[in-house]
Write a structure and sequence with these properties.
Number of helices: 19
Shape: flat
Helix content: 40-55%
Number of strands: 18
Structural class: alpha/beta
Length: 646
C-alpha cells in the first residue's frame, strides 16, 4: 500500500535518519517506537505528505485513503459534537448527491440510444455499487456508537464543540477519523486524553478493524494488544520486527548485546592498531606496515551502539521513617461544591505498605479525594492521616514549583543525599536529561520536561506515603520502567491516580473505583479489576434483557416509563428539572472557558517568569484549583441533566 525507499531527512547539518526503506502492507498494524526526538512524528508526517524528505521516495497506492491524528491540531468550533462527528461522512453525502443528480438526468433525458446516455447508465451503476460497498447505511448509529465508546454521554451530542476542553475536542477528531474508515490509519499518541474504559474501547476497535495502522504510543499495554509489527527508529536507522512490542523488547535486548560485543571487539582492534602506529610511526623499517594500518583505520566502518537501555537501571527511594499502621483512614467522607456532590459515604482504610490505584472517568473525583488527603480543600466526614506520615506528592502543577534559574543538574543535586549523588548523571539520563541537557536552565524546559524533573526530585526525597497523580503522562517507556521498579521496591505506602494499565500492573494490590458519586474498593491488581468490570457489564446486560415478572418491584420506574404515558404534572416537573440542569451546565461551561483562558495567559507568562515573581505561581495554582472545582460541578450538573432527560 505504501512503499518507502531510500528516505533521508536532515535539519541543517543534523541528519535525523538516512537510507530508510520499508513497506506498509494492507494488514500491518505497526508500532512505531524510538526515544523522544528519534523522528517518529516526522515519519508519520512524511507518509501523509505534510512534510517532504531531504531525499528518497514515498510511493502510495493510487486509490488508498490515509487518516492522520497528530498530537496537536488546530480545531474549529462551529458545530455540535454530533454534527462535527458527522463531517466524517461528507464524502458519502457528496457521493449520494452525485448519484441523485445522475439519476435525475436519466429520468429527464430521452436520447436512450446515444453513446452518452449509455455511458451515464454505466457511471450510475459504478457509483451505486461503490457506495454500497462503503457500508454506512446507518450513519446515525455509527456516530453515536463511536462517540459513546470514546467517553461522550448522549447529553453531550447536541452541545457545541466550543464548550469542551482541548482533550475532549481531540476525542471528537479521533471519532471523525475512525468513522471515515481510511485504508491506512496513522495515530500519534491517541491515548493521551482517554480514560481506561475509552482506551479499552479504542483497543478493541483497532484490533477488529481491517486496514493498515501505524501507531506511536508510550502505552505499552495498548500497543502490545493492538499491533503485530514493530519498527524502531534508532540512531538514524530503522529496525523492522514482524512481532508485537513485548516480543520486540526481548529481541532488541539480544541485538544490543550483539552490538555491544561487536563494538567492544572493534574498539580493541582500533586501540591495538593506534598503539602500533604510535610505537612504529618513525621507524623506517615499519613504514609500510604503519601506512597500511592508517589506511585500514580510515576505511573502517565504525560500529555504533544503540541508546543505552536505561530500563536496566535501578533507582531506589532513600530510607524513610516508619509510619503508623494505617496511613489513611476515611469514614463517611463527603465532598460537595455548593449543592453539587462529588462523592459521599466514602469509607476505606489504607494500611502501611499497601499500593493502591484510584481509577475512574475524568471528573469522577479522583484528584478531589487526593486534595482532601493532602489537606488542600475542605470536606465533610472523617479523614485521618496516620502517625509520622511524610507525604511525597506529585501532581501536574508540581513542575511550576521548580526554581527556574537553576540548571537541571543542580535541581537534583540540591535534594540528592548520600551515594545517590554519585549517580545523578545516570538518573538524569534515564529520564531523558542526558549529556548537555543536564546543563539547561529550568526556565527553558518545556512543560513535559519540567514534569519529568519534578518526578526525579520526588524519587530522591525520604517519604513513606507516595501520592502520584498521572505520573507517566510525560515519560517514555524506559523512564516509566525506572519509575515502576522504584515504586515496586518502595517499602512505604503508595496511592496512584493513572489510566496506564501496564504501569499499574505489578504495582497495586487494591483498586478504588470512582463513579456515581461513590468510591468502591476492589481487592487485587488492575487486571483483576478490569476482568471483574467486564463480567459486571455482562451481568448488567442480562438483567436488562430479562423480562420483569409481576412480583418484581421496580424501585425506579420512571426511566422505563414512556413519554406518552406521563401525566401532565410529571411532564411539567420533568421539563422544569431539565431547564434547571441545562442552566447549571451552561453556567459551569462558561466559567470553565473563562478559567482555561486565564490559565493559558498565565502559562504564556510563566515561560519568562523569574523566581522572584512568586505571585504568578500562586495565581496559577489558585486558578488550577478553582478549575478543578468547577469541572467537578460541571460533571455533577451533566449527570443531573441526564437523569432529568431520562
Amino acid at each position: 500500500m505504501i512503499s518507502i525507499q531510500g528516505l533521508k531527512v536532515e535539519f541543517g547539518s543534523q541528519v535525523l535518519f538516512e537510507n530508510i526503506s520499508y513497506v506498509v502492507n494492507k494488514r500491518d498494524k505497526i508500532a512505531l517506537v524510538g526515544k523522544n526526538g528519534a523522528g517518529k512524528t516526522t515519519m508519520l508526517r512524511i507518509i501523509t505528505g505534510e512534510q517532504q524528505p531531504t531525499s528518497g521516495t514515498v510511493a502510495r497506492q493510487a486509490d488508498i485513503t490515509i487518516g492522520y491524528l497528530p498530537q496537536q491540531m488546530q480545531l474549529k468550533d462551529e458545530l455540535t459534537v454530533k454534527q462535527e462527528a458527522g463531517r466524517a461522512f461528507e464524502h458519502l453525502q457528496q457521493m449520494d448527491a452525485a448519484i441523485d443528480h445522475m439519476n435525475q438526468q436519466l429520468a429527464e433525458r430521452t436520447d436512450y440510444d446515444s453513446e452518452d446516455y449509455q455511458d451515464l447508465i454505466e457511471r450510475v451503476a459504478q457509483k451505486t455499487e461503490l457506495r454500497a460497498l462503503m457500508q454506512s447505511d446507518n450513519i446515525e448509529a455509527e456516530i453515536e456508537k463511536t462517540l459513546t465508546g470514546l467517553g461522550f454521554e448522549r447529553s453531550d451530542f447536541d452541545r457545541p464543540t466550543s464548550e469542551f476542553s482541548g482533550g475532549w475536542r481531540m476525542r471528537i477528531e479521533l471519532a471523525k477519523l475512525l468513522l471515515r474508515r481510511p485504508d491506512v490509519l496513522l495515530l500519534d499518541e491517541p491515548t493521551n486524553h482517554l480514560d481506561i474504559e475509552s482506551i479499552q474501547w479504542l483497543e478493541n476497535f483497532l484490533k477488529n478493524r481491517n486496514g493498515a495502522l501505524l501507531l506511536v504510543s508510550h502505552d505499552r499495554a495498548f500497543i502490545d494488544n493492538v499491533t503485530n509489527r514493530t519498527i524502531e527508529i534508532s540512531l538514524g536507522k530503522i529496525y523492522d520486527y514482524k512481532v508485537s512490542y513485548s516480543q520486540f523488547v526481548e529481541l532488541r535486548k539480544e541485538r544490543v548485546e550483539q552490538q555491544m560485543r561487536a563494538y567492544e571487539n572493534q574498539q580493541k582492534l582500533i586501540h591495538d592498531t593506534e598503539d602500533f602506529i604510535e610505537r612504529f610511526r618513525y621507524k623506517a623499517t615499519k613504514a609500510v606496515q604503519v601506512q597500511s594500518r592508517i589506511k585500514m583505520l580510515d576505511k573502517l566502518e565504525r560500529i555504533e551502539v544503540d541508546e543505552v537501555d536505561r530500563s536496566r537501571m535501578r533507582l531506589k527511594f532513600p530510607p524513610a521513617p516508619r509510619s503508623g499502621d494505617y496511613p489513611v483512614i476515611a469514614e463517611d467522607l463527603r465532598k460537595d461544591y455548593g449543592n453539587l456532590n462529588v462523592f459521599h459515604d466514602v469509607t476505606f482504610t489504607i494500611k502501611r505498605g499497601e499500593k493502591v490505584a484510584f481509577v475512574g472517568k475524568n471528573g469522577a473525583g479522583k484528584s478531589t479525594l487526593v486534595k482532601c488527603i493532602m489537606g488542600e480543600i475542605p470536606f465533610d466526614g472523617k479523614l485521618q492521616i496516620g502517625h509520622n506520615i511524610k507525604i511525597g506528592y506529585f501532581a501536574q502543577n508540581q513542575a511550576q514549583l521548580l526554581d527556574e534559574n537553576l540548571t537541571v543538574h543542580d535541581t537534583i543535586d540540591y535534594v540528592a543525599v548520600g551515594d545517590i549523588r554519585t549517580r545523578i548523571n545516570d538518573i538524569l539520563g534515564a529520564f531523558m536529561f542526558g549529556g548537555k541537557n543536564a546543563d539547561k536552565k529550568v526556565k527553558v524546559l518545556s512543560g513535559g520536561e519540567k514534569s519529568r524533573l519534578a518526578m526525579i526530585r520526588l524519587l530522591l526525597q525520604p517519604v513513606n506515603l507516595l501520592i502520584l497523580d498521572e505520573p507517566t503522562n510525560h515519560l517514555d517507556m524506559p523512564s516509566k520502567d525506572v519509575l515502576k521498579e522504584a515504586i515496586q521496591a518502595f517499602e512505604g505506602t503508595v496511592i496512584v491516580v493513572s489510566h496506564d494499565r501496564d504501569f499499574l500492573n505489578g504495582i497495586v494490590n487494591k483498586v478504588y473505583e470512582f463513579g456515581d458519586h461513590r468510591v468502591r474498593e476492589h481487592l487485587g491488581g488492575i487486571y483483576d479489576f478490569l476482568r471483574k468490570k467486564q463480567l459486571d457489564s455482562l451481568q448488567q446486560l442480562e438483567i436488562k434483557n430479562t423480562p420483569s415478572t409481576p412480583t418484581t418491584v421496580d424501585a425506579d420506574p420512571e426511566p422505563v416509563a414512556s413519554q406518552g404515558k406521563m401525566d401532565y404534572q410529571r411532564q411539567k416537573e420533568r421539563e422544569r428539572r431539565i431547564r434547571q440542569a441545562e442552566k447549571k451546565v451552561k453556567t459551569c461551561e462558561a466559567k470553565i472557558a473563562e478559567l482555561e483562558q486565564q490559565l493559558a495567559e498565565i502559562e504564556d507568562k510563566l515561560s519568562t517568569a523569574t523566581s522572584e515573581n512568586v505571585d504568578i505561581y500562586y495565581k496559577h495554582s489558585q486558578i488550577s484549583r478553582e478549575l478543578d472545582d468547577v469541572m467537578a460541578q460541571w460533571e455533577k450538573a451533566g449527570e443531573e441533566l441526564d437523569e432529568a432527560k431520562s
